[in-house]
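Problem 12. The chain below contains 214 residues. Write out its predicted structure in token notation.
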Amino acid sequence: MEDLSNYRRSYEKGELTEQNLPEDPISLFKKWFHEVEDFGAVAEVNAMTVSTIGKDGFPKARVVLLKQFTYEGFIFYTNYNSEKGKAIEANPNVCLSFFWHELERQVIIKGIAEKVSENISDGYFESRPEGSRLGAIVSPQSEVIPSRDYLENKLHDLENAYKGKEIPRPKNWGGFIVKPVEVEFWQGRPNRLHDRIRYKLQDDFSWLTDRLAP
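Solution.
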């Protein structure tokens, strides 16, 4: 057995109080996101964990990249035929989480996922590097494949087929927007008495805030 009980640290880099809280969680998320970005020590500030309930009944979490966020929700892109795409189609209740350990912060978002419009998916797909666009066509995401060479050979064939041509977005590839119903902000504090502020969406679309025990 490997004992990890001595892996400890004291969290002392910030605080989260009720004073000057914005009325909505997106405003606070934006503030935190840019503070982490400005801190400069995080390689991918937009890396987040997406958790879904699979068709087998098990939860599954994986890291993807947040590509846009608005006051309506949080947008990421994927293959709709992938394991997470099928899970979302069957059960759109998902959870997103960000952990920025450099500033001892975490954000957990419960929300409802739905596909973005095709023109939004088209616009983002066209902005991607050529290799990424071809990769979206090449990969039958989450399916069993015979080898790495299988992918490399398919990519090589597509590079030749689309040389000098427009690369169309596959219809099974596009964005999801997660519309939040609950957002929790966690700020590490000394003695494990962490700050936890939760926003919950109300029936009139206003946000109720609570402090949770750490």
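Discussion. The mean pLDDT is 96. Students who got a different answer should revisit the alignment rule from Section 12.3.
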